[in-house]
Amino acid sequence: MSRRFVDDAFGFALTWNYWFNDAVSTAADLVALQLLLQYWTDNFPGWAISVIFLAVLIGLNIVSVKVYGEMEYWLSLLKIVTIVVCLVPYRSKRHFS
Question: What is the pLDDT of residues 21-35, one digit of tens each?
């Protein structure tokens, strides 16, 4: 779209910026996950955790769109349930104080 409405050079630069953003954010997410999981598992090497989750991430991107959409649905439902479970005790504690 940017090539069509602005300029070819702008589209080229924007494509590379998106690629760089995805590369950096994926690496940062893997490092954050590695640090988070090392809190609970001291005897498992950090690089192995990163390799496992990178393989899971690549595997999820290789599967069909239907499987990916189903996975997104269940993970988003998990997020909503987690937020509700965390807010209910806070709200009831605050209500009875």
Answer: 988 888 888 888 888
Asked if residue 41 and residue 7 are part of one domain, the reply reads yes
42-88 tens-digit pLDDT: 787 878 888 888 888 888 778 888 888 888 899 899 999 988 888 87
Domain of residue 12, residue span: 1-62
DSSP letter string, the chain? -HHHHT-HHHHHHHHHHHHHHHHHHHHHHHHHHHHHHHTT-SSS-HHHHHHHHHHHHHHHHHS-HHHHHHHHHHHHHHHHHHHHHHHHHHHHHHHH-
Q: Looking at the structure, do residues 56 and 68 belong to the same domain, yes or no?
A: no
What domain count does the chain have?
2
